[in-house]
Each structure stands twice: as C-alpha cells, then as structure tokens.
Amino acid sequence: MKIAEKKALKRESIIQTALQLFSVNGFHRTTIPDIATKLQMSVGNLYNYFSSKDILAQEIIKYTSEALGEKIRVVNGLDVSAEQKIHEIVDVYFTMAKEKPEMIEYFLRVYLSNREVFSDGCEGMVCVSGFITEIMVFFDDSVSSGELRNQDFFSAFGLFMGYLGGMVFLKGEDVLPQGIEFYIDDISRNIYNALKA
Amino acid sequence: MKPRLLWLQAITCNGNTHSFLNHPNLFSILSHFEIVHHPALDGSYSMEDVIKGEVPCDVLILEGSFIEEGFLKGGVEVSKLIQNYANKAKHIISAGTCATFGGIFKQKDPDKISGFCFDLEEKTSRYDMYASKLISLPGCPMHPKWMSYVLLMLANKKVIEIDNLHRPVELYGYTVHTGCTRNEYFEWKIDTKNYGLKEGCLFYEQGCQGPYTRGSCNKILWNDVSSKTRSGTPCFGCTEPTFPQASLYSTKTNMGIPAKMPLGIPRRAYLTLTGVTKSFKIKRFTERLMDYDK
Amino acid sequence: MKKLHIKQLIEKIEGEAELDFTFNEGKIEDVKINFGFYRGIEEILQGKDARDALVITPRVCGICNHAHLMTAVRAIENGYENAGQKIELTSKAKDIREFTLACELIQNHIKWLYMTLLPQIESYLDCKSEENYAIKASYLASTITKALAIFAGQWPHSSYAVPGGVTCDPTYVDVMQAQSLVDESIKFFEQVVTELPLDAYLNIDFCADLHNIGGDFGKLLHLIGSSGMTEIGKSHDRFIVFGECMLSKSGKSIGTKVSNVNSKYVKESPQKGTVAKAVTYRDRLYEVGPLARGMVAKRTIVKNLHKRYKDSLLTRVFARIDEVAILLAYAKNLLANLNLEEASCTLDLHTALQDFEGTGVVEAARGSLIHKTKVKDGLIVNYEIITPTQWNLSHGEKDEKGIAVEAMKGSKNIEEATFIFRTFDVCSVCTTQ
Questions:
Q1: Which chains pack against A, by 3+ Cβ pairs within 8 A?
Q2: For position C34, which CATH number holds?
Q3: Which of B254, B261, B280 to substitute to test the interface with A, most A CBs within 10 Å?
Q4: How far apart are CA B272 and CA C287, in angstroms?
C-alpha cells in the first residue's frame, strides 16, 4: 500500500476513534492523549495529522458533512420525483443516525453547541459545504422541475433541517418510543406537503 | 482594386448602422473598401441600382432579421436581394443579433422571421450554401469595434478564427463578465442593494446575464468609456441566440439559487464556492467604495 | 390634363419609403407615403414583464433609442403614480436623464445636417462640394454619445433609466470627463458649424443677424436663401408639443396663437396603402418637431423668422439646427450643477407594481414621442407607441392634406418635393414600429 493511502486510512481512523470517544465521554472530557492511547499511537504522531484538538474538531465536521453529502449526492442523481427524493434524504439521515449515531450526534452536540471551537476556520457554512451544496442542488432541481414551491432558501432549509435535527435530538434523549426508522414515512410526507408547489 | 462593400438592411431598427457610425476611426477603416451602398453614408450606387441587382459586391454586410416573403423594397422582395448579393459576395457579415439569429423582431412572427443563416441556434436552409463565407457578429447592437476588427482582418487578407456559430473567437471568447468593475462583488457574492450604486453585483437579483453571455463589452468598452454593467445596468444577453428572454431585469432563481450558472461552471462548484464566500463578512465590501480608511 | 402618378423610392431616411406623387397640371397635388414593413413592436411587447419595455422599445429605432427609453420609463412611472405609488426622482437623476437625452438630440440633428441636408441640397442645386461631410457628423456624434455613455453605459441601446431614477452612480471623474466632451462638441459647433461663439449665436434674435452665421450652417442657410427656397415647404402652420422639457412647454401653436393641450385627445388611426398609422389631435393634423417646439416656446429668432417666412422650409431647417446650440448650452449647464450627493434611484429594488396604466411623453429629436402602457399581473397587456414622424407624415383626408404632404403640394418637380420631404427629418423605422 502506498504511503499516501496509508496516511489517509490512518487519518480516517483517528477521526472515527475521536468520534466514538466524544460520543461516549463528551467532547470536553476527551483529550488528544485519550485518542492517541485508544489508537495505540504516540501523541506526537497524532499531532502530525491534526495540529490541535480544535483543528481535529473542524476536520471532523468536514468529514461528517462530506459523508452525508456523498449519500445525498447519490439521491440527487436518481431519476425519481422530488417527493421520492425527500424520502430518500430523510432515510439517509435517519439511517446514519441509527447506524453511526456518533456522527449525527457530533453535529448536534459538538458543532452546534461549541461555536468558539469552530469560529476560526469554520466560519459560517464553510465546513459543512459538502452537505449544504447537495441540499441546494436538491432544491434547485425540484423548484426548476416545478415540484417544490419557489421560496426563500433559508425558509425551506430551516424547515427541512430543523425538522430532521430535532428528531435526531429526541432520539438521542431516548424519548422516541419507536426506532427512528419508524418515523421516516410520516416525516417525509410532512416535509413534502410543506414544500410542494 | 479595393473590395466592394455593400450594407443591406432587412427587418431592422438601424441600431447596427448607428453603432458603427460611432467608430472613432470610421473613415480610415472604410478607406480599405469601395462603398457600393450604405444606409447612411455615400456610396457609388443608389438604392435603386442595388434593387436592380446589378451592383458589384465582394463584402456583404447584412443588418436585420430575415423573412422569405412579405417585405418589398422598390417592388422586390428583400430576401431575393439578399440572396442575390450573398451569392456574389466573397464574405458575408451578419451585423447584429437580428441578422444572425433572428433577435427581437423574430418574436413578431417566429415561424417566418429568423436570422439569415441561423434561426435561434438552429441552422436555416440557407446555412449550407453560405456557411463558407459567413461571419456572425451578434449583439444588439453589435459593437463598432467588432465590425472594424472583421473588416480590417478581411482587408489584410487574414483568416478569422470562428466558432460553431461563426462568431470570431477573439471577440466572443470572453464573457461580458470579463472586466466588469463589479467583479469583486461577484467573487464574494455581494448583492447590490439597489439600482444606482456602484457597489454590489447585479447577477444575483437584477438579472445580469454577463457571466454566461459571450461578448467583449467589458474588455473593449462601449463608446470607449463604459458598459452596461459598469453603469449599473444588468447585461441582457443581447449577443446570444436567445435574446431577448423574459423578465430581463430580474434573475430567475430557485430558492435563491441562480437558475443559470456562469459559463462552464458546474453547479456544485458554484454552490460550494457560494457557501464558502457567504460565510465570510468582508468589511470592505459592506462599505461604499469611496468611504475607505483614508 | 390627366393626373400623372410617379413613384419615387426615397432612401437614407433611417430606412426607405416610397413616395407616390400625383401631378395635376404640372404641379404636385398629392403624395402618398408608403412604408413597406411593419415590425410589430407593440405586439411583441404584449405578455412581457412591464420593465422589459425599457429594453425592447429602444429597438424601435437606432438613432433615437434613448428617447424611447426615456418615454418608456416615464410611462411606467406615470403608471405607478396613477396606482398610488409616489415617484420622487432626485434632481440628480432628473438632470442625468435630461443630459443624456440632450446628447442624443444633438447627434441626431447634426447627423441630419451633415448626412442628409447638406449633401442633398448640394445635389439638388447641383453645386456639390467635395467635402466629406459625413466625417464631421461621425466626429460630433461619437464625441457627444461618448458623454452620454459615461452615464448610460452605451449608445445605441442603453437601458439605464429605471423607475425611480437611473442605474449609474457617477463620480466627478465621470462628470469631468463628460464636461470636456461637451466642451469639445461646443468647440466643434463654434468653429465648424457656425463660426460663431456659442453665446453670440444664442443672442441672435433678428433675421438680419442670420447673415453673421458662418460655417456649414451658414452655408446651408445661404444656399436656401439664394435659391428661392425660402417660400416653399409651407404647410398648415399648425404645431404641437406634448413633452415638457427645457426646449418648450407642452402646448399647441396655431399660427402664433399658443394654447394648452391634453394628450387624451390624441388619436391614432390606420391608413390605406401603408403600414404607418395616422395621428391627429382633436381630429386635426399638427406638425411636431423642432419648429413646433420653437413656435410653442415662442423662441424669439424662430418667431421672427416665422413672421417673415411662415412655416417654410427655411424656418423649419433653421429651427432644427438652432436646437443644437440650445441643447449644448443646456448640457453644459446640467453637468455644472449636478448634485452627486443625491441618490440615483429612490425606488426600492423590490417595488414592482403588478397593475397599472401610464403614459410617458418625451420630446425626441423629431418631435413628441408618446408611449402608453397597460399592465396587469406584472405583464404588459397593451402597449402603444406614437412617434413624431407619424404626426408629420399622416396622409390626411381629402379636405386637408397631411403636414409633409401639404408642404410638398404645389411643387413642380420631384427633386424639389423630395428635398422638402427630407427637411422633416423623416424616420422610417419609427414610423413602422
């Protein structure tokens, strides 16, 4: 295996491990040495990949954003209706919430709640652009085809993302009586009914 | 012997004639040619001679939209006149969007009115016959220096490189966006707040088509001094086959996203860049240009 | 003697026209003026966004497109006001619009002087000088339109006037540049057109002082005077002006009697044998243009010329070039007093009324230009354009011939009649919109 590939894999494993530890112990209580220990690598070596915890935090948000964005990009490429795509996007989001809760949880509980960590290097939507871009593409396509109503971007975005984020938050609080996948149909229908032309 | 130049008009407003008359070096350019007939300048022959079909013609300049029948001058169908001289000419220059693609006047009767060799972007039945001689100079009107470029290239016997719509690439390789004084606002996605402000980009709301319209208006400048966008007016895409489109003063958006991307820019690239630039507040761009830290 | 019909193609009138002369006993009794093709801009505008008229209507004409733009924006602003939206243009916006419009009129009249009148009169009188008059026209036109473009972005076909003001945001860099271009144009007028300082020219009040005018204008006046053309070209001596501007207030002048007008009495009607429509005011025919403006404004020198020569070819020709001097001084003054502190546009970007009806009037180079727009749900349902040339070339009825026709009546030959026709500065494309 080439060195570059090895490094990329190592980088990814640092991110995965960090996500796990943040999820279990909390963002502030997890330290770089903790992560290094878990990976059986030296702290110095870890700093070669990420020069500070804040930088690591920012890279993680980009990583999770791109992971989600990639899946939504696939949905955008499908030859199906906007209504169907909404269902797919909700499915993607909730499936990730179920199978990789540490990623979605990170977004809600670390990114949104610790703005000072991200204010220098992740201004505005810079680090979540992988994900935001795909939502923009979805909106553009669906308004262009006449399926969704043309409106201000943030009104629609807030409805969509606020709704999904809220559901995942409730899941994290263990409040939802059913598994999160149970809610996909209803939520998709609600979103479509709110946004349709 | 100087090449003999004939300027023929079909369905036109004369805008291209007056645009060309504004060229600062008009007469030195025309000195390379013998003017057979021109709508405003003196020529060797009268309009009646032209209508008889017998005047010489090496370079034919066509202005105005084309119609097969129903438009007579001195009892002769203009279409016949045009084709007669198009056959004689060694070079045919379609001056303006009407002669090239159909333009505004096509909208009166879309089935019957078109450009001479192009009907919007489609080739007309006349294309094959005249393509080897054709140079397109779309614009509403065309810029006088686009015409002088072509005429001087012809006078100097140089070959003009053209694209698939026969537009000279050295003129139409640029977009109207190239050289606009509001470029920084475009880069950082700063909307203009209202008309009459030199600050802000006209692309996001005011309907500016500069980023995807081919032309060199902001490179060569109009009347040697300015351009639409430099004076706060959005570009209306007048060189394109689709001119004029609808709602020219407003940008079509889908949830705030421009429906049409800048030329050649993939949508994802544009949106990613937009997301990034909109995340930063550059103080200088929120202030008036002349109000800087002196 | 039977009546004789002779057809003559007239070119270089911003297009062409076919004049069908009826000779009776050796004199012209009637002229039918036929234009070949109707472009249908009024129909093209139907269904379009209200503001698209600011882009489409200039394409009625390549030489007076700026006047169409100004008329179109006034029609929208008038419509907005009728619908309850107050429009308050700043003096800066008003002055800039006036300035660019003045520039267009100037290039229009100068082109007519050098590319139509002088070559045609020399040809008619068989005294062709070898001068390249067109180069003078091209020089002045490109200079003054450069000043126009500093504010309006380009000429021809700017669309920089929008409801509420203008789109430009000039600095003194722009104003100074425009000033020097106006000064160049004034210098040209002084040195080449009249061989008189501008002030001296503007002080001319009496016919006797006209012989002080040298240059090309002086040459033209002399040619007209010395060839007996001072008495020909008379028409109904009836003038009308609808646009309010520096040149004249609105009003009509029947002979020298001036009174008010109301544009609601303007009526368009189709004519047989031509695509051009006739226009009347209270069912009567009127002349529009520089002579009309001079008469309604009671400009002293025009009044005095009219006293001696009535509405003959001489008075008509004089009034047109005369306007160049007035407009040059006006343009210079506008720039000197421009208040750059004010806003360029006072209407909010997002204000776009959906339902309104409005009329715009502007004094274009050739006379009153009227646009009427009717908008529903933001789209144009009806648009009417009445151009100055339509007024002057209306054919008229049996009992009263049209303005230009009356002027040609009685002429003994086609060359003379054609020259008279050209003194009306006919615009073929405007007539066939």
A1: B
A2: 1.10.645.10
A3: B254
A4: 62
Instruction: Write down the pLDDT at residue C1.
Output: 62
What predicted TM-score, i.e. pTM, was given to this entire model? 0.94
Q: Kindly state the tokens that stand for C38.
A: 């109707």
DSSP E strands: which ranges in B50-148? 59-63, 66-67, 72-73, 76-77, 91-95, 113-114, 118-119, 122-123, 134-137
Decide if A121 touches B, using CB distance below 8 A.
no
Which residue stretches of chain C have pLDDT < 70?
1
B264–A contact, CB cutoff 8 A: no
Using 70 as the pLDDT threshold, list the residues of chain B that sit under it.
none
For the segment A191-195, the average pLDDT, to the nearest whole number, is: 97
Kindly report, residue by residue over A126-175, the tens digit of the pLDDT.
899 999 999 999 999 999 999 999 999 999 999 999 999 999 999 988 99
Q: Is B279 on the interface with A (CB under 8 A)?
A: yes
How many domains would you assign to chain A?
A: 2
Same-domain status, A168 and A126: yes
Distance CA C173, CA B262 (A): 31
Residue B81 falls in which region: left (phi positive, over 0), alpha (psi -120 to 50) or beta: alpha
Confidence at residue A162, expressed as pLDDT on a 0 to 100 scale = 92
Same domain flag for A42 and A3:
yes
Write the residue in A132, A140, A154 that is nearest to B275 by C-beta: A132
User: What token pair was written down for C196?
Assistant: 């008189």
Q: What is residue B114's three-state secondary structure?
A: strand
Reduced 3-state DSSP string for B49-76:
HHHHCCCCCCEEEEECEEECCCCEECCE
- Binary contact (A144, B271; C-beta < 8 A): no
Q: Could you tell me which residues come within 8 angstroms of residue C295 by beta carbon, excluding any fewer than 6 positions away? A: C239, C253, C256, C258, C302, C303, C306
b/e map B84-95, b = 16+ CB within 10 Å: bbbeebebbbbb
Helix, strand, or coil (residue C410)? coil
When CB atoms are compared, the residue of B40, B108, B217 closest to C44 is B108
Domain ranges of chain B: 4-170, 173-287
CA distances from B57 to A35, B45, B74 (A): 84, 11, 19
Task: Compute CA distances C412 → C23, C26, C406, whole Å.
Answer: 8, 6, 13
Answer whether C338's CB lies under 8 Å from C92's CB: yes
Q: What is the maximal distance between C-alpha atoms in chain B? A: 69
- Determine the number of helices (DSSP H) and then strands (DSSP E) in chain B: 13, 13
Are the beta carbons of B255 and A129 separated by less than 8 Å?
A: no
Q: Which two tokens stand for residue B194?
A: 């209202």
- Rounded to the nearest angstrom, the minimum Cα separation between B140 and chain C is 7
The rounded distance, in Å, linking the Cα atoms of A143 and A136 is 11
Query: Which fold does the domain B4-170 belong to in CATH?
Result: Rossmann fold (3.40.50)
- Shared-domain flag, residues A110 and A23: no
Q: Are residues A7 and A73 in the same domain?
A: no
CB pairs < 8 Å spanning A and B: 60
> How far from each other are the two terminal CA atoms of chain B, in whole angstroms?
61
CA distance B237 to B175: 10
Same-domain pairing of A132 and A101: yes
The two tokens of residue B47 are 């309009």
Q: Considering its fold, how many domains does chain C have in total?
A: 1
B249, B291, C420 from C403: Cα distances, Å: 40, 57, 11
Alpha-carbon distance C71 to C53, whole Å?
10
Residues of C in contact with B248 (CB under 8 A): 49, 51-52, 55
Query: What Cα–Cα distance (Å) separates residue B275 from each residue in A48, A116, A156, B80, B245?
Result: 29, 20, 16, 56, 29
Residue A170 Cα distances to A19, A103, A173, A190, C280, angstroms: 20, 15, 5, 18, 77
Range of the domain at A147: 61-195
Which range of residues forms the domain containing residue C125?
A: 4-373+381-431
Question: What is B173-287's CATH topology?
Answer: Cytochrome-c3 Hydrogenase; Chain A, domain 2 (4.10.480)
Q: What is the mean pLDDT of chain B?
A: 96
